[in-house]
């Protein structure tokens, strides 16, 4: 399996490490080049920008955003122009904002979206297939 990961803080970076250990390929991007370089040394493929990361993924692409809740909407807005039909975007934000995020409203009307809001932990996950 190949996965693009945006956001290489503690949670995102550790998810990438576990995926790499499991034999999966990860293409990574973060605003911090240092975070990208650290995972490249651990066999991830680094992207210098969102566009570069998306270009390095095989179609249909799967991209996971592991970013702070405050930047979810902007991160999705920055990513969407680089995705095509059948690509999958999944977003996790911690801690969640208990108000409805505008992220789902920014997706194309033809996108299929699902959301799961954790009750036991403060986390939110939202996924969409771009159509």
Walkthrough of the structure:
Mean pLDDT is 79; it is low at 96-101 and 109-125. It is globular and about 30 Å long. With 131 residues, it is α/β, with parallel strands linked by helices. The chain is built from 4 helices and 7 strands. The longest helix is centred in the N-terminal third of the chain and has 12 residues, at 10-21. The two termini are 21 Å apart. Strands 3-2-1-4-5-7-6 form a 7-stranded mixed β-sheet, with helices on both faces.
Adjacency order of strands in the biggest sheet: 3-2-1-4-5-7-6
Alpha carbon gyration radius: 14 Å
Largest β-sheet summary: 7 strands, mixed
**Basic shape:** globular
Q: Tell me the β content.
A: 25-35%
Structural class: alpha/beta
Number of β-strand runs: 7
The H/E string reads EHEHEHEHEEE
Helix content: 25-40%
Whole-number average pLDDT? 79
Unreliably modeled segments: 96-101, 109-125
The total of helices stands at 4
The N- and C-terminal alpha carbons lie at a distance of: 21 Å
